[in-house]
Amino acid sequence: MKVYFIGAGPGAADLITLRGARMLGSVDMVLYAGSLVPVEMLQHCRPGTELIDTAQLDLEQQQACYVRAQAAGIDVVRLHSGDPSIYGATAEQMRRLEALGIAYEVVPGVSSFTAAAAAVRTELTKPEVSQTVILTRVSGRASAVPDAESIALLAGHRATMCIFLSGPQLKKIVADLSLHYPQDTPIRLVHRASWPDQKIYEGTLGTVLEETKRGAWNLTTMMLVGAALDKTVASESSLYSKDFSHLFRVVKKSKAAA
To answer: What CATH number is attached to the domain comprising 222?
Structure first.
């Protein structure tokens, strides 16, 4: 018996990996976060699979499902939104599985921060602009962010930042970012990236509050911020330059240059 933690991706039913979809179709029990995972994702399950929505289950109730599957000798998929390694609440489940002697495996998924970047058609890194991406969030009722990882402190790097679940505290986030980022720094808000009702805001740190309606971005919103989002900045990598040699492409120097 084995439990498979599978990343369902950001929302679109076809953004699950081939491996994840295959595993969904091979097990007899699937636990999924119904508040975050679209029901269309369950089309990959075979008929007769026991489908359990965990939205109203606490951790002990979910553990009971694993114990029942262990007694029956059947494999289980635990379907998480995005990628299980980012804000997935998987570590506590894994600890309990280890205590029960139940084997588990993790299948990665497409994260909402990459889906958001795709939605606004941007690269999060640019040479000599930003080569660092910070993934973070603000404190919420379910889990607090350590003081040393506050937005105000992280903003000091002026790297590209991807701020999960940013909508409810948009005003404070903007104030904290403004301590270090210029007011013309590009900001993108992506609500429910890849879902049919996806919506996007494109503006700057200085305009986002006046151009967005209070409360309109509260749930499932990703904020992208940083100079790398500026499409007018034409910074290019040397990787594909005709004058750049590497292991797989050797540039022959002209005799004049030699």
So the answer is: 3.30.950.10
Question: pTM of the prediction?
Answer: 0.87
DSSP reduced 3-state for 204? strand
Q: Which of 85, 83, 33 is nearest to 59 (CA)?
A: 33
User: Alpha helix (H) ranges present in 101-161?
Assistant: 112-119, 151-154
> pLDDT under 50 in the chain at which residues?
none
Could you read off the pLDDT of 146-197 as tens digits, one per residue?
889 999 999 999 999 999 987 888 999 999 999 999 999 999 999 999 999 9
Q: Look up residue 152 and give its amino acid.
A: A
Residue at 101: amino acid letter: G
Distance of CA 246 to the CA centre of its chain: 32
137, 95: one domain: no
| Paired residues of 29 in beta bridges | 50, 76
Q: Which residues of 2-19 are buried (b: 16+ CB within 10 A; e: fewer)?
A: bbbbbbbbbbbbebbbee
Same domain, 151 and 193: yes
